[in-house]
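Handover notes (outgoing to incoming on-call)

Open items:
1. Phosphate transporter: sequence verified, structure written out, both below. Nothing else pending on this one.
2. Nothing else urgent.
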Amino acid sequence: MDSYKKPTLDKDLDKLSYMEEAAGSLGKGLVSTGLALLFVVLCGVVAGAYMFDMPGGAVIVAAAVIGAYMALNIGANDVANNVGPAVGSRAMSLVSALVIAAVFESAGALIAGGDVVGTISKGIIDPAAVSDPAIFTAAMMAALVSSALWINLATWVGAPVSTTHSIVGGVMGAGIAAAGISAVNWGTMSGIAASWVISPLLGGIIAAAFLAFIKTFIIYQDDKIAAARRWVPVLISVMAGVFAAYLAMKGLKKIIKIDLQTALMIGGAIALVTWTLARPLIARQSVGLENRNQSLRKLFGIPLVCSAALLSFAHGANDVANAVGPLAAIVHTAEFGDVASKVTIPLWVMAVGALGISFGLLLFGPKLINMVGQQITKLNPMRAYCVALSAAITVIIASALGLPVSSTHIAVGAVFGVGFFREWYTERSGRRFEYVSVKNGGKVSKVRPVRNREEQARRKLVRRAHFLTIVAAWVVTVPAAAALSGLLYFGLVRIIG
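Phosphate transporter structure tokens:
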């Protein structure tokens, strides 16, 4: 027995190794925190350089610092929605996924993030009800601080809450504290609230539809590789067409105004070109692959990377409003001295949101990737592609309509849509039963689902506990952010006023 005991020297070396690992982890956390603090300070310096001579310069600098802090938290919490499925399916490494997300987040915010900023900053609170610039500024700052603190807390405990819920709840709570319930534009709020319910359902339906298409026309075909050569280029072209149509309609409007019909024509043309280029590429990739599902996953690598980039672009276009919407309203109020006129978005304000989201996801984002990418349901590259493309299409539609929907709701809804569809398809699909049937003596017997209830519960493809946890977090976020914002308003209005 003595021969199996670990020598004292080995034990001491193990202890030293554990101490080194712990010190390394602590050091990484301190570096991330230090870099984030440096970014926040730089944002304050830039704001001071632009607004130093203005009467409300100090308030603008404070708002810029808070807006930068808010953007960092959005990046830290919402990164899972963009790259979680890709990383969870092992189609992309964490480093490459974060780099792609950071680049396209910034591009989406700077190119197409303007319209939804107007909704978040002006559509929730009626400007006439808070016409005093000091009151309006205090309300916007309270909304920023409350939502940022709530998202930071959620990120710390590992909960993927909705940043859109947080900021909308913060704006609503501050508006009620400032001027009563009548200050809130309940028509706009009802439309936004409806989109919170509709968007995850729509995301789940679209993701399930794409997965059904892939299973029907590719996976459960006798020659999977030939089917993939035919349909994977089509899926890539759909993604490219959607992205091109959105960019033409939203991203180029400052140069040339393009209507919806023209944008769709441009998207169709780009889709055709992409399909032409993708066919030979997929054909080359499929040479020598075995006729099995594992081989199909390799062919979905490029579509998954592109869809993750598209989702990041759409997320930046939509969620930058959560960071800089109230900040833009504060800057406008301080510069022009009124609340009622239309908000213009300075470039430096957009840059604060875009860079803050990117830095937040690079520095703190990986913590929540496991929840969306691995813990809800098992994802492979094909399922992850359906989730990413579905979420991107849904977010793009919402951004085009100017609705600040929750990308968290959409992405998680798409993940649940894929998981629940897999459960249904596994238990009830006649095509699947026929494909996996066992031939015995020339007779075909279908594989039946397990009838034992405990075994069926164990084999569920979607973890119900995570579903309940996520829904509970969504429900709590709005009232919590609103209550915190209302309390903060009473303190800030005394300081600003």
